[in-house]
């Protein structure tokens, strides 16, 4: 009994010193005396109890630590030695420091109140797919190390938990077929051992001196924050010394391949469904000040259900305020707006809307609208169809140095319906709103979705949640494409090289067919 009293006496002296040096702020003396009385009362109760000394001391130490944190927080005190994660977020701020060595008592006390954790709980906690297969024994380990479900989880602990499951590791994925290769990356078809689902593995080569290409950095930084049904999902990132591997959801083909398979004659109804999904994904990006800057059929992926998703954000970038520092070497030539072709680097979301108009025309006719081979040729094709701009149609164009240098003939605008007879009056109106010379006059993606052209899809498509598929709306489904490839469309009819073309190139869509797609990848290789 004397030894117990001696130990508690020394313990009490220690905490007296702790309290004496605790920064409790102005008026803290009264609070300090109250806390001293509480400690004395707990010590006396512990002396009378028959519980082991270690347990009593540990629980008392834990309670005093919690009291100390509460008082400091109430007094607005911020401690300078808060543990910070590598991502700049403190574990204390996240409500846990469970990825550090913890008190066994704290773990025991916390988990005594935990309900049994299920796979569904972990999937929701870590935002995992529902069909994921967790490693054996992971439920129990997660239950011991994770903070209670009513408390936030630190980023560092979340990363550690994902790593234990298998994310961020090359061995989690099986390479199947090589899909394509680009300047910086090679894309493989693969399979995830965690879900048994197909994935697209985009391997970006890392140069020893240069590191990761800026396109890869942009793609990762933007995609990790873009969660939408019409934007390709980035599942995982794997970083090794030699390469950076991005793991995407696998989609069967891109829009260019889809049009090729249709013999370049798509159902007009399907054109409307694909265009609406393109506008949905783009409106979501633009609301978050993200410009895609490289819209083309090869960067629009499609799965078997008909869901269209924006991909390849390597040229995309976030734009929060107007700036004049952007490059005009963006967007594949055929889908590049005239203001950028004439050297403008001061642009915003309308840069993407011109490309939407070109893709809309291409789907409805089966051929590119402006297949120029050079910048001058591209402008020449644009002006031949839409008319050579004047001060009335494009304010300030006649003072543009690039425009004056080319000295274009004075073409008169031709009705777009003459080149796309399958388009109806509503579609013609929307196409004209997209293909405006002046960027500020182009319709936005948000407003384009509300155009009367989409009236036949119903009102419900306008109120879908961001992550909800368009095909979740009753009655929305793809129709059979009249030009679906068969023996009527031999391979030789589909091989046709596009370049600069005279006006007779724009004839009825049934007379010409698109070139065979050379894109092998369902995810662009950037």
From TrEMBL:
SMART domains: S_TKc. It is an enzyme of class 2 (transferase). Residues 81-105 are annotated as: Disordered. The lineage of its organism: Eukaryota, Metazoa, Chordata, Craniata, Vertebrata. Residues 173-454 form the Protein kinase domain. Residues 91-101 have a biased composition (Polar residues). This is cyclin-dependent kinase. ATP binds at residue 202. Coiled coil: none annotated.
């Amino acid at each position: 009994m004397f030894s117990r009293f001696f130990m508690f006496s020394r313990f009490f002296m220690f905490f007296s010193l702790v309290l004496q040096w605790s920064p409790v702020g102005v008026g803290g003396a009264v609070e300090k005396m109250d806390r001293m009385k509480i400690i004395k009362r707990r010590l006396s109760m512990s002396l009378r109890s028959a519980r082991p000394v270690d347990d009593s001391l540990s629980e008392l130490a834990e309670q005093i630590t919690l009291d100390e944190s509460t008082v400091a927080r109430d007094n607005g005190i911020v401690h300078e030695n808060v543990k910070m994660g590598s991502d700049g977020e403190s574990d204390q701020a996240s409500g846990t420091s469970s990825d550090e060595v913890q008190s066994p008592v704290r773990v025991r006390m916390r988990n005594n109140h935990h309900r049994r954790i299920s796979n569904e709980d972990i999937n929701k906690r870590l935002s995992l797919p529902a069909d994921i297969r967790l490693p054996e024994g992971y439920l129990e380990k997660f239950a011991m190390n994770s903070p209670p479900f009513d408390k936030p989880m630190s980023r560092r602990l979340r990363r550690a938990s994902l790593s234990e499951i298998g994310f961020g590791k090359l061995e989690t994925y099986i390479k199947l077929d090589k899909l394509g290769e680009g300047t910086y990356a090679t894309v493989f078809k693969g399979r995830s051992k965690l879900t048994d689902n197909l994935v697209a593995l985009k391997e970006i080569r890392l140069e020893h001196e240069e590191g990761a290409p800026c396109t890869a950095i942009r793609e990762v930084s933007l995609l990790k924050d873009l969660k939408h049904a019409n934007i390709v999902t980035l599942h995982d990132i794997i970083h090794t010394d030699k390469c950076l591997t991005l793991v995407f959801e696998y989609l069967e083909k891109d829009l260019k391949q889809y049009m090729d398979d249709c013999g370049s004659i798509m159902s007009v109804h399907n054109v409307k469904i694909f265009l609406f999904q393109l506008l949905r994904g783009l409106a979501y990006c633009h609301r978050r000040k993200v410009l895609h800057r490289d819209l083309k059929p090869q960067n629009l992926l499609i799965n078997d259900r008909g869901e269209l998703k924006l991909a390849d954000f390597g040229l995309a970038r976030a734009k929060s305020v107007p700036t004049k520092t952007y490059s005009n070497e963006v967007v594949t030539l055929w889908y590049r707006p005239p203001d950028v072709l004439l050297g403008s680097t001061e642009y915003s979301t309308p840069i993407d809307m011109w490309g939407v108009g070109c893709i809309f025309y291409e789907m409805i006719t089966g051929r590119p609208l402006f297949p120029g081979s050079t910048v001058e040729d591209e402008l020449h094709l644009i002006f031949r169809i839409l008319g050579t701009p004047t001060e009335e149609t494009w304010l300030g164009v006649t003072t543009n140095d690039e425009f004056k240098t080319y000295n274009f003939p004075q073409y008169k605008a031709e009705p777009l319906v003459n080149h796309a007879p399958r388009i109806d009056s509503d579609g013609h109106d929307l196409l004209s709103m997209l293909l405006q010379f002046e960027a500020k006059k182009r319709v936005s993606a948000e407003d384009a979705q509300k155009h009367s052209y989409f009236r036949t899809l119903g009102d419900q498509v306008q109120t879908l949640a961001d992550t909800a598929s368009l095909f979740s709306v009753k009655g929305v489904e793809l129709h059979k494409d009249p030009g679906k490839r068969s023996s009527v469309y031999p391979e030789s009819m589909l091989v046709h090289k596009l370049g600069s073309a005279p006006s007779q190139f724009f004839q009825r869509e049934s007379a010409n067919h698109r070139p065979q797609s050379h894109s092998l990848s369902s995810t662009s290789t950037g």
